Amino acid sequence: MKEKVSRSLILAFPILFLVFFFLIPLLFISLLALGLSPEDLLGILTHDLNLYFMYWDLQQALLTTILCLILGLPGSYFLTHTKLKGKRVIRNLLTIPFILPPIVVLMGFIEVFGQGGLVNQLWYSLTGYQLIKIYNSYEGIILAHVFYNLPVIIRLAEIGWRTINPEMVGVAKSLGVSRFKIFLKIQLPHLFPILAAASLLVFIYAFNSFAIVLVLGGVQYQTLEVRIYSLAKMRFDFNAAAALTLIQILINIIVILSYLYFSSKYEIPSDEIQEFQEKSIKIKPINFRNLTKLLIIGIYFGIITILSLLPIMGVFWSALSSSLNLISLDNFFSLFDRSLVSFIGVTPLEMISNSLFFGIWVLVLSTLLAIMLSFGLNFDNNTNKQAKFTLLGSVSGIIIILPLGISSITLAFSLFSLYRLTPLYENVWVAIIIAQTLVAFPFANRIIAARRASIDPSLIHVARSLGASRFRTFLRIELPLLLPGIIVAGLFSFAISLGEFGATNFLARANFATIPIGIYKLINTRNLGEAAALASILILITVISFIVLERFGKIEFKL
């Protein structure tokens, strides 16, 4: 009885955290929108500008998804079906753009594709014309979104190709079936669930884009995320912001539920299937046809890799360049200059310390909540699968899934609307930590839950049968086995916190500016050298975190 009470108390912390800081604020926003008269609500939703931005947001998200599919599917096929040296390196290089914070991607695009960027300068010197315009440009936003989301399609579709048994394809070829028919009848049915899930993931990332569209879109192009931010933060029109938030939540939940449906239809292929597939790929004699294939593959990955690395290289080039186009550390030394306070609100060192402060808190909170939730839901450790489908497990599962369908601006807006007149918002640093934890916690929970599922239940049953208490069993057996997952979850949460921009920018006052906010303000004031120096620091921290994550676990693109 005492253990069951303790279990309830442990499980209460993560559940109450989500209820008070996620569900209730979200319900408050929904009631604020639904509390409007039908005429007012309809007037907001049918306002010309709101309709235009809703339509544009859906259109750009759909176009981004289609382009990512067209560009990413060949890459996933090549990575699966060819023996390339350094395939792991290529795969990791293609992943880097996705793990970078959007504000860093934005900085890279400005340095490479901006009016004075590397690509435009080179093209102008050759033709006398500017190649691409990224500010107030539909093309610039789409290009940035494709760059950012292309790794999702490549990595997930690669998993899809690996689920296809090559023996089936071999039999079809021996019967004279054409490659197109093989793809249509055998490969596509296997690929469809994972391609649908990957496409929905790209769609929701593009649909909820904030930092990229906030800077590049201007007043002409705005996602619902940017429109809500503008209405609530700039115009203080909370009713209109709440109404649009309600529409955004409905769209996001539909997409997330569809994603969860399709993602449940595929499994990660076993090592045996992957090993069999590798053995089935024979090295063919070199001839003109094979050389042509290798050339096409080389050109494809060369272009994709260069495009993936150019914005990152552009950030470092700008950070290390001086006004005389010489390699210099002046931009980094400028970060110690108090003159930047007028642009950011705090000194750059205070801004970096703010980011580390929030990151450490989010690391501790998100992993602790995930550990408590995992322990509470698996307290009995019953091997009977039916035991998992309790009311408590179902309710908590739904509560955990819901934040995945809510954007960072919506989280911040709901917290601000409900708690802005309370001590919580007076201590705004607490509100920022809560918002960032809400963003990071679902991912930390999924990582730890996946690690928890790999533990052999018999180990716990043996310990319990020998008289060990449930808590002693957890500390001595489960916790050491969970440690790699806890490290990955913590580092991932820390990286998410460092790069989080939307919710933090909505809530933060000047004295709590973080690195992404500093980059954004320096971009707006055209202090691009200092912005690049900050962005390069963020890139280094993110890449180091990624390397450690790859060491202890693996990056998964599934929610």
Please provide a brief summary of the model:
The protein has 559 residues and is an all-alpha fold. 77% of the residues lie in helices and 0% in strands.
Architecture overview:
The protein is mostly helical and 559 residues long. It has a single domain, classed as MetI-like (MetI-like fold, Orthogonal Bundle). Helices cover 77% and strands 0% of the residues. The protein has 26 helices and no strands. The longest helix has 34 residues. The protein starts with a helix and ends in a 7-residue tail after the last helix.
CATH H level, superfamily name: MetI-like
Q: Mind telling me the CATH class? A: Mainly Alpha
Structural class: mainly alpha
Task: Give the termini separation.
Answer: 36 Å
Number of helices: 26
Q: From the alpha carbons, calculate the radius of gyration and give it in angstroms.
A: 25 Å
**Would you identify the regions where 5 or more consecutive residues have pLDDT less than 50?**
270-286, 382-394
Run of helices and strands:
HHHHHHHHHHHHHHHHHHHHHHHHHH
Mean pLDDT: 80
CATH topology tier name: MetI-like fold
Coarse shape: globular
Structural domain tally: 1
Number of strands: 0
